[in-house]
Amino acid sequence: MDQKIIIGLVSLFSMGILFFSFSDRSKNISVEPIKTNSAVQTENDLQVITIVAYGGYTPHKISAKAGIKSRLDIKTKGTYDCSSALVIPSLNFKKNLPPFGVTSINLPAQAKGSKITGLCSMGMFFFDINFE
Length: 132
Ligand SMILES: [Cu+2]
Hints:
The protein has 132 residues and is an alpha+beta fold. It has one helix spanning 2-31, and strands at residues 40-43, 46-53, 57-58, 61-64, 70-77, 85-88, 93-96, 100-107, 115-120, 126-131.
């Protein structure tokens, strides 16, 4: 009887340790910050903004430079969800993105403080590009 209780307690305790070490590990992964600026690269005089459309838009908050020409590259990677139905109201852009590939949109230099918002056609997912 006593032995069973001890074994029970020991296994509960080790399960607890396992649980915490696993939850710690998953915490480390999810805590990793989204580097919004890795989405923005400047090639010569062109600013290239890359957004992945797949179950939403990643990243969805982007800071970009105002006053230089930009190209918006929207990448899909097996995207069959509604983030492939992209609408950018301020550009009059409305398109069903192919499930795989890159869709490029050229943007003229944007004014400081302006913002370009893209949405899925349902308005469920979005991204904002703030020009600073
Ligand atoms: Cu949607």
